[in-house]
Amino acid sequence: MKYLVIVESPSKCKKIEKYLNDNDDLNIYEVVATMGHITELKSLKNIDIENNFKCTYELIESKKKNTEIIRKKIKTVDEVLLSCDNDREGEGIAFFVCQVFNLDPFKTKRIVFNEITESAIVTAAKSPRNIDMNLVYAQQARQILDLLVGFKITPILWDVITKHSANSLSAGRCQTPALKLIYENQLDINKIEERKAYNTIGYFTNQNIPFELNKQFETEDDIKDFLHGTTTFTHIYSCSQPIKVYKSPPQPFITSTLQQTASNELHYSPKETMRLCQNLYEGGYITYMRTDSKTYSKEFVDSTKEYISRTYEDKYINKNIHLIIGGAKERDELLNQPSISTTKKVTKGSKKVNKKENNLCQDAHEAIRPTNISLKELPDNIDSKEKRMYKLIWENSLESCMSDAEFYSITANISAFQNAKFTYISELIDFPGWKIVSKKYSTDNKEHQYLKTIRQNEVTLYKKIFSKVSLKGLKPHYTEARLVQLLEEKGIGRPSTFSSLVDKIQERGYVKKDSIIGKEIVCKDFELYNNEIFEITIKREFGNEKNKLIIQPLGIIVMEFLENNFSEIFNYEYTRSMEDDLDKISKGEKSLTELCSICNLQVDSLISKLKDKPKIEYKIDDNNTYIIGKYGPVIKCSNTVNGKEEIIFKSVKKDIDVHKIENGSLKIQEIVDDKNNTEIKNSSYILGKYNDQDVIIKKGKFGLYITWGGNTKNLKELGNRPIENISFEDIKKYLEEGSNMVREINTNISIRKGPKGDYVFYKTLKMKKPQFFSLLNFNKDCKEDYKSCNITILKSWIKDRYDI
To answer: Looking at the predicted structure, is the pLDDT value of residue 644 above 80?
Structure first.
């Protein structure tokens, strides 16, 4: 028989086709790709609300050519196998493939796998299943809910704020609660009143070990009194008996924890993390990256146990490793029980797992892991960012299967004036356990051994006491990693949507990833040395923050309007309950019609309460008004010249407090940015200079790009965020990549200009010389322009033609 296997991504085709044909001499397999969704719900007009929310899906215009190719291939085969991704979206795509090509969705077989390896593909092909219609209904329900909320409320934003925003204002069922998290955090930051406090360190023993005082002082007089009393105080040393401390290995990666860890350790955005993982998955190196499951397959656990035994010893295998095998009966009970132990136990990166949260896990896949634990490093021709991501996943997966790290901990105390005490905690490793993988531990702790030799209740003299000013009460802005964590905790969206939510609120211009310059304060520190108190005056900055999510004036205006008028459907509990109900639909416990009807009635009810809302604008004086223009906040200036009204627009200073404008406490001179006092009239502006050439950022048909001299560089990694939210530092790395770049495919492959035309440039870090390949047949083969076509088509063509 001849089979046609339909997948989503074209880069999977060649590998899956090879695995299937190599293992089946009787049948012939051909694999084609839909390139994601092939149908769409364009607007509310496509939803018949009165007819149980019956939807009319339309073929996506850009997919029509590829759809006709697939249609012709279907006619040449005996059977079609649907192998779209193993999640709700994939189930939906599989169903609509049946709809478009007149295949019976109840008879057409579906094969699913969580990794692109030979064994997984062959096993899946031998055990096909039917389309799970409950998952299809859940996917459809999510689309309908998103349209009901977004398409009904967004036009109201246009009416009351602006229709002409370059990045199109929008409200979203999950997008708006994500923005609300940033907004509320900013309100908390604004309310905080910082105060000075003194943190004190005492240096004791011949080793000058720094002991920390367990008391803070808030005034200079308080710390002076303490230091004066210290000069005559008798300090007594004591030390606890060693306590065995167990540090548990990290938990297996799910989507959200991988995004957080990659952000914190590799400084990758959630969007970048998912892009890299998609490439690793399609390359057959890791399992599917959109998952809630914290379990592994038995086959992986067995191979990992064997790897640990071979590389280290059996004692490094976690004694409870059987509990992270998918379907383990004891697992759920263990996750919800408090730890019972006579010794102290610390878990790396763990959090309390409540019963509700555990029940919400879709558990459709395994945790994110390498497909082969013995593959410690990827081949040289793999992108360097992908290598770093793979290493992170490989280490976490191995460590999660290993035994606890064991330490001996002692707490040394020295009595202090005013019933306080100085404390120093020291740990000495006894058994490295999972920490042996990264080797981030020390076996030699001289201080630990030294502290145990000091006699109990011995009088100890200080070497120096130093008290330093700190600022209490500072609350940080959120990082992307922290926002992802909060989205998960509050049940806003699902792992597969977190990265798009974080990116969307930046694209809309509501939030900007930026650095905060702290406030400089004159501090007076104190040092006690040889019974003499010294005062040290120093300027110190507090509150410096780097790469944090900062809400913009536009985000504040949008959020406050939505909070005042639609709080019922954008509160966290409502959003979480919607996600819970979608889970129920996926299990056949709730109907699509019921959920969508409730949501639709709530939205309509809230809209009906809105009377004619005036446009949001703040009058500063008779001639000047603060409004939202095409490229963000501007001042609309109205003057009468020769009897005619003349209107011009002036730029607003960055970091201006929109609430102060709203309540009229700022004058026009305090608001207008004199350095750039005309509205940006084109979707471009100068960021700075590079090699004495102006660097201009622009927004074109295919997104953001920069030009300098005769050079052009695509900024696809920055998404579709407003150009005014991008700084010179954001694009500096692109300037340094070379001036003959036409289009970057990945770190190793790019399209470049040459004396005889454009060509494919290929060079890995370990290659001494690059290789060059012709683009001559691309247009003929793909009927596309390599400069502007979908990057997936270009990648697939290069891989198929040159095997790189």
So the answer is: no
